[in-house]
């Protein structure tokens, strides 16, 4: 296993990184990228154990419902690159299981890559979304064929790929990117059916970053959450990058072009839902604290909004538990969360998130945006005014109340809050993607049978009469019997 310092050293590997208009020779020293790197380094140190045969709990394949639940619980305390590594590896193993019968060579490569990643203790990010160009056109009809990542050359040793992947969280501070097709490809689109693990320092790879991290000269008390929890988002360019065969898991096989994104969607969405359980509970806690600080906790409409938020949080937790309790198992004995409950939970959490944030803002009031800085509370010329006017009652002084306002703003209404608002919807695919999977896995035949029974119609469309209309408990809903 690597220590935090060894991990930071491993990032000084010649990778080509850019942010805010300049190149970055060392991501561990760049102010806008250093935060994510240090957070990941802390994760390395937290898990580190000496010895040749030890490895982190993120290199783990659950084989029971209890193991799946335990692994998801552990994820709540991991940094993002570690979470992404676990999801990426479980994805490629799930895809390998689904491909094994037709392409055993890819399945064996996936298992070998899992073991190699564990041995090297690397971090892996997920490369899904292509540039796409004109969204109305498929890959082969774009005016630039590179707008979807594609194979541009093949040899006995591997393939050469070209294109770009967007929205890659923590790319600048990870080791490999797991490239996969963004959708099901059609005949003639074989070159765009590529799945592979690519080192982020490979020749031809460039990472162009965006970051919402507070600038180094800003007050950490004004950004109480995002100053400690930052994310970098990368656009990864593949400029004729050679990928050796042992890192290639799909190279033109159309029938499995969507296998990887569906497999990742399953694990990505389950992990997201687990984090949304914590997120929803946090929103409830902030709403209750600020309501109490403002003396409004007994006002009916405030209580009603908090009750709505509690219901939201509880339904996410229930679906999350159902997704794990109804797990299926691969032929290898690996546990996989239930597709229906996982996607329904992700959809509900994302679709209603804006309403929950609106409730929080409505409860908190305008000081979420206008509360002065805590530095003004320390300024002798303004401190007395703020101590007088920003308190509300005995036990709720200005410092406490202002910290709540700044936390709510930073967490839900500033740069981090805006990033979170978008990622809750888009992470793991947009809302429509979850609807598609939910619809595909819903037991429609059972629903239709119940509807026919209610209507007194047989499966063949004939109207039933007499005892035939009796329901399963001997009750005729029409009241005729």
Structure overview:
The chain starts with a helix and ends in a 26-residue tail after the last helix. It is built from 16 helices and twelve strands. The protein has helices spanning 4-10, 31-47, 65-75, 80-99, 104-120, 259-294, 300-325, 339-351, 353-364, 367-370, 374-378, 383-389, 398-412, 415-426, 431-441, 444-455, and strands spanning 16-19, 22-24, 124-127, 150-154, 158-169, 176-179, 194-199, 205-211, 232-244, 248-251, 328-329, 335-336. The longest helix is centred in the middle third of the chain and has 36 residues, at 259-294. The model has no long low-confidence stretch (mean pLDDT 92). With 481 residues, the chain is of the alpha+beta class. The chain is globular, with a radius of gyration of 26 Å. Strand 4 and strand 5 form a beta hairpin. Helix 1 packs across helix 2 (31-47), helix 4 (80-99) runs antiparallel to helix 6 and helix 7 (300-325) runs antiparallel to helix 8. Helix content is 47%, strand content 14%. Strands 2-1-8-9-5-4 form a six-stranded mixed sheet.
Structure in a nutshell:
With 481 residues, the protein is of the alpha+beta class. Helices cover 47% and strands 14% of the residues.
What is the topological layout?
Layout: H1 4-10, E1 16-19, E2 22-24, H2 31-47, H3 65-75, H4 80-99, H5 104-120, E3 124-127, E4 150-154, E5 158-169, E6 176-179, E7 194-199, E8 205-211, E9 232-244, E10 248-251, H6 259-294, H7 300-325, E11 328-329, E12 335-336, H8 339-351, H9 353-364, H10 367-370, H11 374-378, H12 383-389, H13 398-412, H14 415-426, H15 431-441, H16 444-455
Parallel strand pairs: 1-8, 3-6
Antiparallel strand pairs: 1-2, 4-5, 5-9, 6-7, 7-10, 8-9, 11-12
């Amino acid at each position: 296993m690597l220590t935090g310092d060894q991990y930071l050293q491993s990032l000084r590997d010649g990778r080509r990184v850019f942010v805010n208009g300049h190149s970055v020779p060392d991501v561990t020293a760049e102010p806008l990228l250093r935060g994510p790197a240090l957070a990941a380094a802390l994760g390395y140190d937290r898990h580190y154990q000496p010895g040749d045969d030890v490895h982190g709990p993120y290199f783990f394949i659950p084989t029971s419902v209890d193991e799946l639940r335990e692994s998801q619980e552990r994820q709540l305390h991991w940094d993002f690159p570690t979470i992404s590594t676990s999801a990426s590896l479980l994805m490629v193993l799930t895809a390998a299981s689904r491909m094994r019968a037709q392409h055993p060579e890819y399945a064996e490569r996936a298992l070998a890559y899992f073991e190699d990643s564990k041995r090297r203790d690397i971090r892996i990010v997920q490369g899904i979304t292509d540039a796409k160009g004109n969204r109305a056109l498929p890959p082969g009809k774009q005016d630039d064929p590179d707008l979807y990542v594609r194979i541009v050359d093949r040899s006995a040793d591997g393939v050469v790929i070209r294109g770009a992947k967007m929205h890659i969280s923590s790319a600048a501070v990870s080791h490999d990117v797991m490239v996969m097709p963004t959708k099901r490809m059609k005949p003639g689109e074989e070159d765009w059916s590529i799945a592979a693990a690519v080192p982020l320092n490979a020749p031809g790879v460039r990472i162009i970053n965006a970051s919402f991290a507070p600038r180094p000269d800003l007050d950490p008390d004004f950004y109480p959450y995002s100053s400690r929890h930052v994310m970098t988002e990368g656009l990864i360019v593949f400029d004729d990058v050679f990928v050796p065969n042992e890192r290639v898991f799909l190279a033109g096989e159309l029938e499995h072009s969507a296998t990887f994104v569906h497999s990742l969607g399953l694990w990505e969405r389950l992990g997201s839902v687990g984090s949304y359980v914590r997120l929803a509970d946090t929103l409830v806690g902030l709403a209750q604290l600020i309501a109490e600080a403002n003396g409004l906790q007994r006002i009916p409409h405030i209580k009603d909004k908090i009750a709505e938020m509690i219901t939201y949080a509880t339904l996410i937790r229930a679906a999350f538990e159902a997704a794990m309790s109804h797990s299926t198992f691969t032929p290898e004995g690996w546990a996989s969360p239930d597709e229906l409950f996982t996607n329904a939970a992700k959809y509900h959490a994302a679709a209603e998130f804006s309403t929950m944030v609106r409730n929080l803002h409505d409860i908190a009031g305008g000081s979420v945006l206008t509360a002065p800085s805590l530095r003004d509370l320390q300024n002798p010329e303004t401190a007395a005014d703020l101590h007088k006017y920003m308190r509300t009652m005995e036990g709720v002084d200005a410092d406490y109340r202002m910290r709540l306002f700044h936390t709510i703003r930073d967490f839900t209404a500033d740069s981090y809050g805006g990033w979170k608002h978008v990622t809750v919807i888009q992470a793991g695919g947009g809302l429509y993607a979850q609807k598609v999977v939910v619809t595909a896995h819903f037991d429609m035949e059972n629903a239709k049978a119940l509807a026919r029974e209610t209507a007194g119609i047989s499966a063949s469309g004939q109207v039933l009469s007499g005892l035939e209309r009796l329901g399963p408990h001997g009750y005729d809903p029409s009241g005729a019997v």
